[in-house]
Amino acid sequence: MAGRLDGKVAVVTGGCSGIGLATVRRFVEEGARVVIGDISDEQGAAVVAELGRVAGGHEQAVATYVHVDVTSKDEVDALFKTAKDTYGSVDIAFNNAGISPPDDDSILDTELDAWRRVQEVNLTSVYLCCKAALPYMLEQKRGSIINTASFVAVMGAATSQISYSASKGGVLSMTRELGVQFAREGVRVNALCPGPVNTPLLKELFAKDVERAARRLVHVPMGRFGEPEEMANAVLFLASDESSFMTASTFLVDGGISGAYVTPL
Ligand code: NAD
């Protein structure tokens, strides 16, 4: 059976965990070859080994891992070059790596170094990845870029993570602008805006504190956190030609949270 991404080459940052990992697996299932950029080398090797087994019989590995700190221009450029050199094109860029560290909190308590680190990893990285991917896509006259923003790009929280929220607002604005600029050149740029998703990033925040989790869950009309696989399906849609009339969009996959005034509970 034909895969929805047959013949496509994808780059996924933050592909060793959570939303990125689920997406890498989904992309490979649908026939893509994937280059993973992350700083988690052990996990990267394990993912490539796992996918090698899934796709057994291929002469060429379907997935490649590259150690990349997404805040480094040289390393990001090398990541996209690896995709082109190894698999022949850059059709999909899922710019997804991000952090949510505890020292990014209320503006009253967040110091400049914490602010800057989050801006670098969450926002500057997306600028670097788009800048690296676009020349390949413009030359091919086709490409789909998906940048991971967040529901916090469209709504505020009283329990602030000030740099994180600002970084995701930046990702959303940048995505919209790029989508408009390159719409007539065959390159689509969309923002994935997940609601709260059950990943290591979120678990670390709430695992120790059931009350904190409950305080957030009450705002989600569906009454639960999302799963990484539910994000992967959305990314697959944006990456594939099925979303061919979509660009510059704010693609909310959030269990209804951004639409809620009064919730069922
Ligand atoms: P995660 O922590 O499970 O995975 C993040 C991955 O990024 C990890 O593999 C990590 O090693 C990698 N990474 C971190 N810093 C990096 C760097 N400097 N260079 C390269 N790789 C780096 O997180 P997740 O929950 O899957 O989040 C993925 C994206 O989704 C992030 O951008 C996050 O902000 C966003 N998001 C998450 C949620 C949620 O509830 N989990 C909600 C909205 C948006």
Structural notes for this entry:
Helices cover 44% and strands 14% of the residues. The protein has 265 residues and is of the alpha/beta class. The protein has a seven-stranded parallel sheet, sandwiched between helices. Strand 4 (92-95), helix 4 (112-140) and strand 5 (143-148) form a beta-alpha-beta unit. Helix 1 (18-29) packs across helix 8 (228-239), helix 3 (73-87) packs parallel to helix 4 (112-140) and helix 4 runs parallel beside helix 5 (162-181). The longest helix has 29 residues, at 112-140. It is globular, with a radius of gyration of 18 Å. This is 3-oxoacyl-ACP reductase.
Averaged pLDDT: 95
Could you say which small molecules are bound to this protein? Answer: nicotinamide-adenine-dinucleotide
Order the strands across the largest sheet as they lie in space. 3-2-1-4-5-6-7
Approximate helicity band: 40-55%
User: What is the radius of gyration computed over CA atoms, rounded to a whole number of angstroms?
Assistant: 18 Å
Pick out its properties:
265 residues; alpha/beta; seven-stranded parallel β-sheet; 8 helices; 7 strands; globular; binds nicotinamide-adenine-dinucleotide
